[in-house]
Design brief:
By secondary structure, the chain is α+β, with helices and mostly antiparallel strands. It has 3 domains: 184 residues, no CATH class; 90 residues, Phosphorylase Kinase, domain 1 (2-Layer Sandwich); 218 residues, Transferase(Phosphotransferase) domain 1 (Transferase(Phosphotransferase), domain 1), CATH 1.10.510. It is built from 18 helices and 13 strands. Helix 1 packs antiparallel against helix 2 and helix 4 runs antiparallel to helix 5.
């Protein structure tokens, strides 16, 4: 399963509640449209530049007359305006909606430039033409690109359409020969017709926005920002409509899990529903909290869980090396707290790995453990075997480097399988290495079944107390009967491990402030 670590704080504009009366577009769609505004401004700058080059260089050669100075001035100012718009949209820190407001002004000013060029810059007369002016293009393109409401597009388009008649009137005041008032209105009537047509793309964009809004509604949660994609689906940052509470919403689409038939899709949905039900039944503070779950009309399963601030143990060790024994004991005791409750409910996690365990910042506590992903949970009660969350019949599920021999052999599985996996996790935390190394899952399975592990004290860089060394090896016993028989027994042995110093919340806080400054203050960690 993939994981995502967001290395810095981000703010995302929230979208209106689906089904509401607001015409504002969802943040994701609005941002995408604003990116297109930058492209449109760049194209506008290119077209104005092309016109300037043609007027300054080509016109004297072909017509033998120089271009009027006022025409050059209009083109130069229009190029500068377009470049300024491009730089503003691309680099200004303003909100997307503010940039849309500025784009409407740019739209009208562009139309003003075209109108002055066509109707005011001519020195003696304004020719009557039955052809559409360039403002027709400006109106249509702006209506399709600018993500404003239909009413605002209509007003801006009518103003843009009126720039041509106004420019003719200004030419008349200058003494140029111009068409009559009726002739002018007939000449530019297509502009006003296109101003009405320009509203249609805005209506379409609003409908797309509403559809996206509804698609982003998961129960009481509204999806705000995509945080990551993985083999099982997507994880979104979401916000509760009423409680203003953020959450991580996992979306699981059957087709992404390899479901080829509707029946397989339904089986996967049942699997994840049971995962959600199993997690919701647990109350340990060291188990990830589940807020809500359900299935959308498109048969996408979702569940909302707490959004964690911290780092998974796999990333923690790989970035910082093996952990001192006192910290490992501190973390393992909290993992035991979560598993003890699960086992008391007859649940076996089946996938205890460093990636499924997070050291978090919870309130004033650091190194606060959260156990995630009960997706492979099964029931140790034989009467409930039919409710197992195996992905498919006769399949082996779990992570090879942390699987107990009985899981590999698909024999009877109980809480002692989690104890074996916990021993693998402890080994990794103490040494920075897996219990067994192999280049294929099959070779890894063979070693878990046959090879004896090297004591962690012989592979670790840091001192490991003999009692902790022995406890880890006991958890890694091939025979479940040779392991500690309950997670409570593991925790009891952890409590009596002789340590030179205890790992406390104060020590954890100092470590976080030294090693995870940005992460400790604002980063959000989720799994996909």
């Amino acid at each position: 399963m993939a994981r995502l670590l967001a290395p810095q704080c981000r703010t995302t504009a929230s979208s209106p509640v689906a089904g509401g009366t607001s015409n504002r577009l969802p943040a994701a769609l609005l941002t995408e449209q604003v990116r297109r505004l930058a492209v449109c401004a760049a194209v506008g700058a290119g077209l104005w530049t092309f016109g300037l080059v043609m007027d300054v260089l080509a016109r004297p050669l072909t017509l033998g007359t120089p271009v009027p100075a006022r025409q050059v001035l209009i083109e130069v100012l229009s190029i500068a305006l377009s470049l300024a718009m491009f730089l503003y949209v691309r680099y200004a820190p303003h909100a997307a909606r503010t940039k849309v407001d500025v784009a409407l002004g740019y739209y009208v000013l562009n139309a003003v430039g075209v109108a002055l060029l066509n109707n005011w810059a001519h020195p003696t007369s304004v020719p009557l033409s039955t052809l559409l002016t360039w403002n027709a293009v400006v109106i249509l393109v702006s209506g399709m690109i600018i993500p404003a409401t239909p009413m605002r597009i209509l007003v801006a388009s009518l103003v843009a359409a009126s720039t041509d008649p106004i420019a003719v009137w200004l030419a008349h005041l200058r003494g140029a020969s111009v068409p009559s008032g009726l002739g002018t209105m007939v000449l530019f009537m297509p502009n006003y017709a296109l101003a009405a047509v320009a509203v249609l793309p805005s209506h379409v964009l609003q409908r797309v926005g509403r559809s996206l809004e509804q698609a982003q509604q998961m129960g009481s949660y509204h999806l705000v920002e995509l945080l990551g994609r993985g083999g099982m689906g997507e994880v979104w940052k979401a916000r509760h409509q009423l409680l203003a509470r953020t959450a991580a919403v996992k979306l699981v689409r059957p087709e992404l899990m390899g479901a080829r038939t509707p029946e397989e899709g339904e089986n996967l949905i049942r699997r994840f529903r049971r995962e959600a039900e199993a997690t919701a039944a647990l109350n340990s503070p060291h188990t990830i909290r589940l807020y809500d779950f359900g299935v959308t009309e498109e048969r996408t399963f979702y569940y909302a869980m707490e959004l964690l601030v911290g780092q998974d143990l796999d990333s923690l060790v790989r970035a910082n090396g093996p952990l001192p024994a006192e910290r490992v004991v501190y973390l393992l005791a909290q993992i035991c707290h979560s598993l003890a409750e699960a086992h008391a409910h007859g649940l076996v996690h089946r996938d205890i790995t460093p990636r499924n365990i997070y050291a978090c910042r919870m309130g004033l506590d650091d190194d606060f453990v959260k156990v995630l992903d009960f997706g492979l949970v099964s029931y140790s009660d034989p009467a409930s075997v039919g409710h197992s969350l195996m992905t498919a019949a006769h399949s082996t599920t779990g992570t090879p480097a942390f699987m107990a021999p009985e899981v590999i052999l698909e024999g009877a599985v109980d809480a002692r399988a989690d104890i074996y996996a916990l021993g693998c996790v402890a080994y990794f935390l103490l040494t920075g290495e897996l219990v067994f190394e192999a280049d294929t899952p099959m070779k890894m399975f063979v070693q878990h079944l046959q090879a004896e592990p090297i004591p962690p004290s012989m592979r670790g860089e840091l001192p490991i107390p003999a009692a902790l060394d022995a406890l880890v090896l006991a958890c890694l016993a091939k025979d479940p009967l040779a392991r500690p028989q309950s997670i409570a027994a593991v925790r009891q042995q952890l409590e009596v491990v002789p340590l030179t110093s205890a790992w406390t919340n104060a020590a954890a806080r100092r470590w976080w402030e030294t090693h995870l400054v940005d992460l400790g203050s604002c980063a959000e960690v989720v799994k996909a």
